[in-house]
Amino acid sequence: MSRKQSSAVHLTSFVGGIAGDSGGRRKRFSPTRHSRHIIQKRGWCVRGGVDRILGVDFSGARDAGQKIWLTVGVERGGELHVKSSVPAGQQFGADSREECLAGLRSAIGKADVVGLDFPFGLPAVVCEHEEWRSVCRWIAEDVTDPDELQEVCVDRAKAATDGESAYLRRATDEPHGALSPYHWFTAAQTFYGVGNVLWPLLREGTIRIEPMGDGSGTPVCEIYPAGTLQDVGLPADRYKDDTDEARQRRETIVEGLRLTPLSLHGIEDHLIADVGGDAIDSLLAALAAWRASREGFEPSEPWDPLEGHIYV
């Protein structure tokens, strides 16, 4: 599920764009020489390292089995080979949020590196704690539901800004155009992701959160599919629909991803046919997490340890 701002990303300088030509016809996106250069120079040429990579397009919806999507990849010879791309309902044989999140926690524990598409933290201004782990515990143990998370954070934001701002963003959200972690569109993802996925695994000592280094075990990082697409010069919005334009954008994304060290093993049509874009997003989550691991989870920009960091 996307958590991108509604404002459009200007793509024409990277990939040409879909626009009317002199004859009034609509052009298809296709990666240009410039976008190929962007993709090839963005740190994708990597070697050695981890084995099993899990990328997750997350959702806090009640019918999570149809909303959460998982891609599993295995690193071989400097390439990421896609082994599976399925919705959580198919992977875990259940559709309810509770069952799917339990299955997801188990899957995370079996991976070598994990990329999850939900906010790992809150803006520092609305936090009444000094450490990220304490914020995580607060969400898991003291907040009742996504509505309460949103209400509390909005009240704190307004108090801190003399009523001028309700939905503040983290330092890491700004460069990628991501929404506030407690915005009405993302609050459920933050609440269930942090409270029902990260915190139980942290408490068990199963995972390590990057780049904070909190915990031990499987390294887990926050990713943002739209940010990854924007970073490599591919369409970062309007690809999640059943329109012809959205399908063309998905085709362009898949074509562009072939320029990265990905071995898709024949799932191209599967990625293009998924009108919700969840299959593509989970693939991007795996790809971004893999690249982050190759770079030692070194943050690419300034970040606040209380808020977390998005890897693209």
Structural class: alpha/beta
Number of separate helices: 12
Distance between the first and last residues' Cα: 16 Å
Let me know the number of strands. Answer: 9
Q: Give the tally of structural domains.
A: 1
Taking the sheet with the most strands, its summary is: 9 strands, mixed
Query: H/E order of the elements?
Result: HHEHEEHHEHHHEEEHHEHHE
Instruction: Tell me the helix content.
Output: 25-40%
Strand content: 5-15%
Determine the mean pLDDT. 87
Rg on CA atoms, Å = 19 Å
The coarse silhouette is globular
| Low-confidence region ranges | 5-30, 32-48
Verbal overview:
With 312 residues, the chain is α/β, with parallel strands linked by helices. The protein has one domain (15-311). The protein contains 12 helices and 9 strands. Strands 1, 2, 3, 4, 5, 6, 7, 8 and 9 form a 9-stranded mixed beta sheet that branches. Helix 5 (97-110) packs across helix 8 (187-204) and helix 7 packs across helix 8. The two termini are 16 Å apart. Residues 5-30 and 32-48 have low confidence and may be disordered.
Topology:
Elements: H1 12-15, H2 33-41, E1 52-57, H3 64-67, E2 69-76, E3 79-87, H4 88-92, H5 97-110, E4 113-116, H6 132-141, H7 146-160, H8 187-204, E5 207-209, E6 214-215, E7 218-223, H9 225-231, H10 244-257, E8 262-263, H11 268-273, H12 278-294, E9 310-311
Parallel strand pairs: 1-4, 3-8, 4-7, 5-7, 7-9
Antiparallel strand pairs: 1-2, 2-3, 5-6
Helix pairs in contact: 5-8, 6-8, 7-8, 9-12
